[in-house]
Design goal:
Blueprint (H helix, E strand, L loop, with lengths): L1 H126 L3 H26 L5 H4 L3
Helix pairs in contact: 1-2
Length: about 170
């Protein structure tokens, strides 16, 4: 019985060591699980924090996209206005060229009329004027005076130059 009791005591001691070892390992596993749970919670918090940052970045990107679109619309409006302005300037140049041509034509007609008026005046002076012819002569002189005034006004306003008038 003593032998059996000794073996039982030895076996009990061995079982006690095994139980203590199992308890230690269980305690280590529980601690590792607790540590992993803490690490997992920390990882979840970091993911949530990163998600909030990504949402903020997405909102900022949408804002920037809106601003870029607005800038593009403004640039397109500016381009359209510049095109319109260039067209208006081109039309003005064309109108000025037509006006310049018409002024030259008027200048030539005035020179011809002045010459004709002088010729008629000389002929009428040679034969004497009756009232009807005198009236026509006076009207022609008045027309020549108005044309001369118009040329002077055009010269003052730089619509025509002296070189344009006397280019022959």
């Amino acid at each position: 019985v003593r032998g059996l009791a000794g073996r039982t005591a030895a076996a009990t001691d061995e079982v006690g060591v095994m139980v203590a070892d199992i308890q230690q390992r269980t305690s280590d596993v529980v601690e590792q699980i607790r540590q992993l749970a803490d690490d997992l919670n920390l990882g979840v918090e970091q993911v949530e924090h990163t998600g909030r940052h990504l949402d903020n970045i997405a909102r900022l990107a949408a804002g920037v996209e809106g601003q870029v679109s607005e800038i593009a619309r403004g640039a397109e409006t500016n381009r359209e206005q510049l095109d319109s302005l260039f067209h208006a300037v081109e039309q003005m140049r064309s109108d000025l060229a037509v006006s310049d041509q018409q002024t030259r034509s008027l200048a030539q007609a005035a020179v011809q009329m002045e010459g004709q008026a002088e010729t008629i005046s000389e002929r009428l002076a040679a034969v004497g004027l009756d009232d009807y012819h005198q009236r026509i002569y006076d009207l022609a002189r008045e027309g020549a005076r108005r044309i001369a005034e118009q040329f002077e006004a055009d010269l003052e306003q730089n619509r025509i130059s002296l070189d344009d008038l006397f280019d022959r």
